[in-house]
Amino acid sequence: MAKKKKRSAIARRRARAGFLFILPWLIGFIFLFLRPLIMAFFYSFNKVLITPEGLNFQAVGWENFVYKFRDDIYFFRDTFWPGLSKFVIEVPICVIFSLFIAIILNQKFKGRTLSRAIFFLPVIIASGIVIQMLRSFGMDPSAAAENAYVFQGGGVAEILQSAGLPQGICDFLTEVSNRIFDIVWMSGVQIILYLSGLQSIPRSEYEAAEIEGATAWEIFWKITWVRISPITLVVLVYSLIDSFTNVSNPVIKFVYEEYSIRGNLGGSSALGLLYCLIAFLIIIAVYALASRKVFYVNEN
Q: Cβ–Cβ contacts within 10 Å for residue 59, how many?
């Protein structure tokens, strides 16, 4: 009975800690995002006319939601499908790359702290004023790798084709090369998450496996990968959200231009809400499938 009460007290403390952890986000959502979200729902069912007197609303029902899907045949080909398929390449590579770099940075070597800071630096820069300063001078950091021929699609394609690889493999690797800079740029948080997971694995488990004669490959799959599987799920979901909301995503650009350039506030709101709904459903589906392979170690 005493043991059950103790576990119940621990569970309550963990629940409070979890609530305090999400409290800053909850406050920010209520005071910063809830009102714009409600306004977006209202705008999406109206044709919004900007007049000198202010905004004028004309109810159009579901027209804003069905217009692009019914009348604009180029929207799917040039914007919608490229935007949704973007994560198919970026997210798996980002997860694998982050784990690979985290394993390297978790080793003991001189300059380890500096190396970790270098990989996390893009996260700091991207959230600061540096990016705005660069863009104000006409410089786009996301296009920094374009000046290097080896990172351009043409250069990589020529190298791969000269090696005699099949065209399908050449096209895939060329596409990966075209996005490698973006993948490195967006992997800082994932690397930190994996580092925290790797450092939480008890050293005694590795020592016991080495005494039993396990190979490095066996140790990785039976200890490291199992232990960091919950972190992998977090990294996967985070990478999906980051890919869907990245400013380089063509759908995000189109939603912004629909309002800022074409002045269609109602259509922009409807497209934004539809895109959020589709992204949410994809994330839920991926989470449901990936969570089946997650192993949680009971430390109690």
A: 9
